[in-house]
Amino acid sequence: MKGALPVPYIVAIVIAIVVIAVLVYWFFVLSGQGGGTAIEQFCLAKRFTYCSSWAAVGYDPEKQPGKKEFAEWAPECGTYTWAKAVSMTACKEALGQKSTS
Fold first, then answer.
1. DSSP letters for 41-75
2. What are the structural domain ranges in the chain?
3. pTM of the entire structure?
4. Which residues of 66-98 are buried (b: 16+ CB within 10 A; e: fewer)?
5. Which of 6, 57, 83, 92 is deepest in the core (most CB within 10 A)?
6. What is the pLDDT of residues 39-79, one digit of tens each?
7. Do residues 74 and 49 make contact, with C-beta atoms less than 8 angstroms apart?
């Protein structure tokens, strides 16, 4: 059959695509883009947003963001031990404010 690709070429192309995909994944994991570091930075940014919105209402427990604890407000961050300890005092410290309570 004229113009058809032989089977070995098709197999070689599939293997090359798999190898390239593995190398790209490996590169992202080693560079920190695919590992836990990027996710933790995302969660720290969410903590800052949570604390900032709580600070904007004067740390009034009745006006707490959604009246939820941080680990409940951002469940994807609940795997970090610091996420369970986010409180009014921890928010003030995270924002660089002096805690009076």
1. HHHHHHHHHHHHHHHHTTT-GGGSGGG--HHHHSG
2. 1-34, 39-94
3. 0.53
4. eeebbbebbeebeebeebeebebeebbebeeee
5. 83
6. 788 888 888 888 888 788 777 777 776 667 887 888 888 77
7. no
